[in-house]
Design goal:
This protein has 139 residues and is mainly α. It contains 5 helices and no strands.
Length: 139
């Protein structure tokens, strides 16, 4: 009877390893998601900061809305997410929101149309997604 139990345990461990491998392969999409999010956020900030109103708001809204729509469909079609996904996406979006506000508010007040402010600001806003994508590939 002990022999049956050990073979069942070995089969269960093999199945767990197989499923873990499937989850690791299936959750690689999140790194791409974060990189596209970061690049889209940086591009949106550049558009807002460097184009003249009213074109800036409407064009940036269309661009970022399209990026987020594509990312939403892409994420919704993925069969697997890794443990801790909710925390990681919350950290990425939270860091993005803080940096976005830190660049946008002073930019509108003091640096309207100044590329020297908006280009480094766009890079800073893109960093949470880019760093998140890099860290996800290292997991």
């Amino acid at each position: 009877m002990g022999e049956y139990a050990s073979s069942d345990a070995a089969a269960a461990l093999a199945r767990a390893e197989e499923l873990g491998s499937v989850v690791r392969r299936g959750s690689r999409w999140f790194a791409r998601y974060q990189v596209v999010f970061g690049c889209g956020a940086g591009l949106q900030l550049l558009i807002v900061g460097l184009l003249k109103p009213p074109y800036a708001a409407s064009f940036s809204g269309v661009v970022f809305g399209a990026v987020m729509a594509v990312l939403g469909v892409y994420a919704g079609r993925q069969p697997v997410v890794r443990r801790g996904f909710g925390i990681r996406i919350a950290i990425t979006v939270g860091a993005w929101a803080l940096l976005y506000a830190a660049v946008l508010v002073p930019g509108f007040i003091y640096f309207q149309g100044a590329a020297a402010w908006w280009i480094p600001g766009a890079v800073a806003v893109a960093l949470p997604g880019l760093i998140g994508g890099y860290l996800e590939t290292r997991r």
